[in-house]
Amino acid sequence: MADKVTPLRETDAEARAIATGLIATARIAAPGVVEPETGAPFVSQIAFGLAPDGAPITLISDLALHTQVLRQDPRASLLIAAPKPRGDPMAHPRLTLRVRAHFIPDDAPERPALREDWLAQHPKSRLYVGFADFHLVRFEILTAHLNAGFGKAYALDRNDLKVT
Amino acid sequence: MADKVTPLRETDAEARAIATGLIATARIAAPGVVEPETGAPFVSQIAFGLAPDGAPITLISDLALHTQVLRQDPRASLLIAAPKPRGDPMAHPRLTLRVRAHFIPDDAPERPALREDWLAQHPKSRLYVGFADFHLVRFEILTAHLNAGFGKAYALDRNDLKVT
Known about the structure:
Two copies of one chain form a homodimer.
Chain A: H1 2-5, H2 13-25, E1 28-34, E2 41-43, E3 46-47, E4 49-50, E5 56-61, H3 65-72, E6 75-81, E7 94-103, H4 111-121, E8 134-147, E9 153-157
Antiparallel strand pairs in A: 1-2, 1-3, 1-6, 4-5, 5-8, 6-7, 7-8, 8-9
């Protein structure tokens, strides 16, 4: 329902540029998940990076509540916002990705390259990337919602969000 | 399940001080809601303030997806994080509130005082606070989860979070 009654602008090159710019520069994201016992939402904070193919990735611990929820229900929403808004933060662009989480198995052939790529983007995580409870997770983008400021809302799909 | 297997520290005065400090200084929050058609999570960004009694409040538009969802399902989760983390953002404190949204009716006796209080905290919203589609919403805190940095997770209840 919601998107149908929210006035949306036609997605254009400017909207795509704002969205891919947010994805390309983000270092953190706020993931929302649905707690299985209650069906209620839960929002937390994760480190955010990009795989070589441009897919969003993260490194999360089994000790964190969001990780435990994602193992049961891989549906998530990732908020990506400009890091230091000045003035009215409601006037600044922010992007919501609707995603599905895919855990990278420890023995996956792709893992070593992803790990090096992650460390290049998040060098401080070298302190714990090797811990047994930490896992790389790839997010498959389903759709997205961009709010580029007052009255500037857009619906985007994964083809609008390719970061190369 | 999740909280049960997440190692939690005993909630102490330091944890309460970190949590209430985040609430008292936050100007924005990332609310998570559950989209009714799909049951999937959706995270966005809202302005954040406090009512005179210390309850979190916001000002949101009927045109926004989160507002439309909250009218159908008032369960939300609010992420509050330090605005400008330096170094590894995963080492910085962030607080997740589990809340229930209560829309303040336009003719509620408490509304004029709440509105003035809101404007004192968010003066730039004077430009649109009077628009018919904007509504003040009070969030009733149910429980909370504080992550104060690596290995420092706490479960809190509303009595731990009183901002005075």
